[in-house]
Target: F-box domain-containing protein
Amino acid sequence: MSQPMKEPMWLSQRLLDDIVFDILTRVPVKSLIRFRCVSKSWYSSIANPIFITAHFNQAKSLSNNNHNGYLLYGSESSLCTAMFNSDRTLTQNSSFEIPFNDMNVIIVGYCNGLFCIRNNCDFYLWNPSIKKLKSISITRFSMPLPRYTLGLAYHSQNNDFKVLRITRYRTVHSPVAEVYTLSTDSWRRVEIPIELLNETRSNGCFSYIISSPCVFFHGALHYIVESIVETSDVKFILAFDVNDEIFREIMLPQNLLDGVDSFDHLTVFKGSLALFACGQALDEWEEKYQISVIWVMREYGVVESWTKISGPMIWVERFIGRFCGFTNNGELLIETVDDLLMSFDPESLYKNDFGIPNILCEDWVSDSTWIDYTSNFVESLLLLDGTNV
Model:
């Protein structure tokens, strides 16, 4: 009777390595940082770009299974995350110390575990989970006295991150667009099609990009552009596809807020690009009140699919100070002018005051300089294979 063939030693070792690799992709970041001390091989394996990518994809998958979402808020000294519970309460998830000691730190954006932050005139990519800070090299196209806006995006095709900077200079009519790519640590100039510029002003220059945060959605960064043409304002969405690096125009719905001047905020509502428009008006007794509406683009890129999903919402007792986004179940998340955080269901009209929960950072609302909402907060090893610059 013949003996069963033994499995080659190298094959057994490879299977074992694959099993360990798979297990480690599911391990929390803090534990992996400690595990690097186990051996030289573990140290190099955990810092390997292939493992970092696999761990990142696994973390995204697990985070997407949480349907409550996260609140992100930053002060001058710390960044905190809080998880939305099904009973409309908040539970602090993590707290990170911002790696600067001065008061000039501004959080520009967040995407897939990385933050883009500004400290005075310097810009950085920051992964708070592993306390890694990456300086973004100075663009060689810089000129004095610029006005600019930034957006952070994830390039899924190349597993890379990009920063888009659109700048207006006082001495140059047309805006300048530049893209920073993390993998190459370099900037490139990209062209904004002149036909888009000529549609806004005859000299090929829009007045400004509205200061509300840009939205990364459907593989593109989205900004609201406003231009004053003669006596009227023209607004549209300037979208930058991070895959082909091409700008496109998306027109906004007409008569956003029934003739009331509004501040507009791009966001995502239940998986669709959306617009929150809010303005101030006077009633018949000359008393001020706020009015707001929600527009949703049912089919991305199709202007005709803009749909107003709520009638005008009237705000009398508490005015909106800051719009923070929509939760996964479609509730507005807003900060009132008296520094209270609340959610509002536009369908049931249910309001929920979060107040200032004791479980969160002390003075977390009154001291916050930045508040945002994300459906998934990913703790990752991104930037671990690089160096602090």
User: Anything to note?
Assistant: Residues 54-374 form a domain with the Neuraminidase fold (CATH 2.120.10). DSSP finds five helices and 26 strands in the chain.
